[in-house]
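thought: fold this chain, then report.
action: predict
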Amino acid sequence: MTKTADSFAELEQGVYAALETYSNVHRGSGHNSMVSTFLYEQARDIVLEYLGLNKDKYVVIFCTLRRAEILKTQLNPKKYRSISSQEIGLPLGVTALAVKRNALPGGAPFQTGGGTTTLVSPGWVIWAVAPDKFEAGTPAIINVIAFARALKLMKHSGNDVFLNKTAKKLTANEILYHDDLDQYTGQKLLDELRKTLIGQNIIVPTIEGNKRFINLDNAASTQTFLPVWNTVCRTWSQPREVHQEIINEVRSICAGVLDAPLTDYDIFFTSNTTEAINLAAENLAHESGQGAEPVVINTILEHTSNDLPWRMIPGASMIRLQIDANGFIDLNELETVLCEYNQKDLHGKKRIRLMAVSGASNVLGVYNNLEEISRIVHRYGSLLLVDAAQMVAHRKVDMKEIDIDYLVFSAHKVYAPFGTGALVVKKGLLNFSPPALALIQSSCEENAAGIASLGKAFLLLQRIGLDLIREKEKDLTILALRSLAKIPDLIIHGIKDPDSPEFAQKGGVIAVNFKSIFSNVVANELAERGGIGVRYGCHCSHILIKQLVGVGPLLKRFQRVIATLFPKVRFPGLARVSFGIGNSEEDVDTLIHVMDKIARQQRPLPHKDIQKQMNDFVMAAAQKVYF
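observation:
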């Protein structure tokens, strides 16, 4: 085996280990979140070590090419160093900027959304500290880990070890369409695919002994399957011309899956949903100053990434629609507001240019009536953007039939956690200059392997059938809701009755809290007792969470003071359980068993060593990655 082949094999071995314990960083709970967060933060130290820089003086920010270029314009060239995955020969789409801590720009970051803030209210924002402030949205966690592992390998094998590709040249068709499960479709494919879930048999320490880790945080990020991972590995070792062939084919796959024919829609790959929404907001900003004053309408359901970018548009304003007890907007109110602004001209020069709405809520799990929303919005001359981050892995999206103008989503919620997403937009709507558009397109197309993983994941979901997936997740949600309803002092938010007519519009996301137990305690107990990973806190939906838990004006002001003085403080919010195709009834049974014990405060004898055991687990898992 050649030195290059050896290095690729070692890279794949390390990244596979990271995938076994993959989770979203910083924002989850449980063993996997601890491991991924540690690995991601350790990657910064590895970059600094490779560049020979002092970590006390420099901070590393991971960017796409475009984000790095924009940030560089705000920095003194003598105050930073950079290195990219493209330079070392890997199609990861990662640029690492090592910036002197005292040289970072103040004020609002140029891209905003999830992760860039510590606290959000309708009228104000408290920004996070660096580097989080400059890494909008879920970062390319696995790609960054792969990049750091590659830098360590290069120290031993030479800086050109990934530049000299020696693997057999493959076609996009071979990489995307063929796998060991070719003969299966439908339920049989789902059964066989579940057997390939990477990390499904990871054993973690708990107070009650070693247990299998259970991921119930699929709304934050999904684990991946062996056929998707194999697609990534094959793409890494291919030359650039094959990468472009893959990108073009995945664009066609996305067009087919989303009912967005390439004759009518443009598809731009991005790093995540957040970047895609920021691009749409930049596009709308180009229209401001042309007579009418732009207004964006959205709802209090929205993720921070579908709120903050619209606030940043100079001269624009926002309207947030309220929701009912189950999480639905009032369509009559939507029509009234649009009529007042765009037909009756009751608000001067202000015109609603766009409605930006989630296809499904990341907190309450409700699916909006996009058909009716689209009809109303277009009747009054406005455009519709749908945040489909919580939708595309669970239900069919028909862009052309529904008449959606912009659609955005992330692959890390579609079983392809390799740092890509997409902005799908009707042709003719983007107003960027040709050079700017070229940079937008080329920036994330550096991440050819991530794009390939999205294409492969979409193909697998199609072969299973989204209607089947919907039914399976519905069954788990019904089982969980019926059982959770029996737990004393537990509050379930949103639709809680499976017999309700509105339950058809409920997905596999359940937000809960106990009357007398903070949600961070609940999340930690689930991890320590049952090896269960969930999410707690504000879920990047601060405005909604505050309303659900009854945070009044006085407490909001107090929170603002605390968040200003202590920016690393996280407010408890709600605990959230979310299902994916890798989950089973056994997972739900374990969840209910542990939740019932938490409710009854049936804690076993003090187990002071559990945190040490969990930390030891993290260190051992990290050693497998950065060995």
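thought: worth noting. The chain has three domains: 3-167, 263-444, 466-610+617-624.
final: tokens above.
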